[in-house]
Amino acid sequence: MGGHSKKSSTDLHLRFNSDNKRHREAAAFISTVKQKQKTALITAAIEAYRTAHPHGVDYVELEAIQKETWSGFLPKVSILENLKKKHEAAVPVVTPAPAAWNHSDVASDKAIDQAIDFYNLDSDEDE
After folding, report:
1. Which of 4, 8, 93, 98 has its CA 20 to 30 A from that of 60?
2. Diameter of the chain by CA atoms?
3. Is the separation of the CB atoms in 24 and 18 below 8 Å?
């Protein structure tokens, strides 16, 4: 069947987020422990956690530690607070209507007549 074995519950891979202060501190401390004793350190840490939390895992506490990493990605104003704000009605932009074309604005009716004559547009003759 192949050389790959399923990952068992006794296999553990830890990766600390360098943006999280508590993760950095834990990683720094673990790095001072000899490789052969790192598993013993994790075991002792879990035993100490279980002593401090006899009723099980305190997910509120763990999520607070985890969210310390997310502080840089949180908006300055919370989304819920933004939703509470009433959106002001947008002020319509008034664009001035183009001025009506006034025949008297044309410099001269003669200009049209001159163009017709110049291009010989009035001619019925076929050239």
Report:
1. 8
2. 111
3. yes
Give residue-wise pLDDT tens across range 50-98.
999 999 999 999 998 888 877 555 567 777 777 777 655 455 677 777 6
The token pair that represents 70 in the structure block: 């997310």
Nearest to 66 by CA among 15, 125, 122, 123: 15
Whether the full predicted model's pTM is greater than 0.85, yes or no, is no
Contacts of 82 (CB under 8 A, 6+ apart): 75
CB half-sphere exposure, 123, CA atoms < 13 A: 9
Sequence-ordered strand ranges (E) for the chain: none
